[in-house]
Design goal:
alpha+beta; CPE0013-like fold; two-stranded antiparallel sheet; binds iron/sulfur cluster
Length: about 120
């Protein structure tokens, strides 16, 4: 698997050490790669769904999702930032709500259209 933490994209290998009941990570050029690989074993990367605050709309929260796969390492940081974000209706489905979140190249987009009230 490729490490997704930084643009180096190191190719990581994961081997299970059955004698020791642990994992041996190789190919990483820094400690973050090992952490990322272990996180991927426990909780794989996926598209992240969350909600932002919305004003001038029939509801107080707008469902959003990432337009790319989020490494589990970033999940909590993304959610903390997304949940504090506030937007105003009208919003189009697929509209970018947070561009290039935390400089990862991933955008957070609206999961639905919301008209202004
Ligand atoms: S292992 Fe370290 S250097 Fe390699 S991609 Fe991951 S974060 Fe970057």
């Amino acid at each position: 698997m490729k490490c997704k933490i930084c643009p180096m994209h190191c190719e990581l290998s994961i081997e299970e050490d059955k004698m020791d009941n642990s994992y041996i990570i190789t190919g990483n050029k820094c400690p973050q790669g090992e952490k990322h690989a272990l996180n991927e074993i426990k909780e794989p990367s996926r598209v992240l769904f969350s909600r932002v605050l919305i004003d001038k709309a029939p509801m107080s929260r707008l469902h959003v999702k990432t337009d790319g796969i989020v490494p589990s390492y970033f999940k909590e940081k993304f959610i903390n930032l997304i949940e504090k974000t506030r937007v105003e209706a009208p919003i189009a489905k697929g509209e970018v709500i947070i561009e290039n979140i935390l400089s990862t190249g991933i955008n957070v987009v609206s999961a639905r259209r919301v008209n202004e009230i």
